[in-house]
Amino acid sequence: MGDDVEDVGRRFARLASIPLDELPAGVVHATKRIIIDTVGCAAAAMDADVVARLRDVRARQGGLPESSLTGGGRLAAPAAAFVNAQAANLLDADETLHNFTHFAAAIVMPALAVGESVGASGADLISAVAVGYDIAGRIATAMPDYEVTPDGELVRIPGSGFSWAALGAASACARMLRLSEDETLHAIANAYVMTPLHGSLLGFTSAMGVRASPWHKYAVYGSVAEAGLQAALLAQAGLESDPTLLRRGSEFWRAFGAPSFDWSAVDADLGERWLVVETAIKPYPFCRYGHTALDLLGELMAKHDLKADDIEDVELTMVPFGPMQALMDYRRPHSDIDVMSSLPYALAMVANAVPAGPRWWAADLRADPAVHAFVDRVRGRVEPAWHDLLVEQVGGGGRFRRLPTRVTVTARGARVSAFADVPSGDPSPADVYLDDAALAAKFSTFLEGVGAPGSAARLLEAGMDLDRAVTLDGLAEVLRR
Question: Is there a contact between 101 and 164 (Cβ–Cβ < 8 Å)?
Fold first, then answer.
């Protein structure tokens, strides 16, 4: 193979300079939606205690007031990227790629922060996010996330994490700074040595129901985002790193805890296939694995005109997969952050018609006897026959596109049931896709009572008009308050 094929990093760096008019219309539209979703998720979390503390810590450190902070104020771009990325992931309502990972917080927020600091346009941001998301997603999907043990059990690989997203963040920030191809290559390499440890996804899962989750959940997205931005700034200043990092045969991926890396997949159809188009929008502030169950309960209640008090029993039939079973076993969240990990509690939110969004975190709901009573009426069972479907999907490094789920409700002396294997928000099939109207509805709910009146409408307008926006002020205004 020639050098161009061998040097994946250089191909990534070349892609980072793509102008908006060379992106397919579908990619532009999907990227706008991911930007809207990420900024909206951050804005929805602006009043959370964690976000307030992060703002205070970074504000005390000072810096040029060049980039907007979630909840108000301005700080230096790296500090803003840190706070905003952590806020965007906090509610766990941010996007999901192929139902296994989400990392737009670490791409959108550093690009937005550095873009504000240099006066970049909306077109710049769209191109930067499309490229950064694609590069990070390709690295992620080239590393296996699941494996089948010798006794046939499907498990997550211990090294699974999120720090690889810094390489995509660096690419996005390099695009915002209009770095050269060589500078972008060094920005990506700088990010590799600056990004934090791979995270604590399995530690987070094993602690579910045992103790309150840490403030950062399973990864510090803020550090990943800041590492990518700083890496690009250092490359802009002429500081070079290893330009051979992403040449075929490199074992850079071992630092992310991966047991292997599929070089044949990482750059297949580069510049033609865009992962942002394959990404799901999450309607609920909850782990993606549980979304199908939430959909089904809501559908059954609407179809049969049920209220929470009508329901005597909820039986959830689920796949034989440890993380899914852990969500079901965690019945009463220890803290607001743990809401994303308790499926019985989330089902109680749906049953009691609590609007999806930051309201699910409310302390009064977590202490409500009626909520606890509903949780006690939820039970789960594993369907062993669905095991082979999961194994078939993850064979050869694949991911779950289908997670079969059945919800059976006993109410008013009758049993009703519904089944689905694809949650709402996936880009396909068409009946689960959340269109632009549904995206607007998500943030009308998520931002109700949060920030300034009309924030949701301004967010949608600013995001959808990005390709014509001379500055990024519209998005930044929504973040600030």
Answer: no
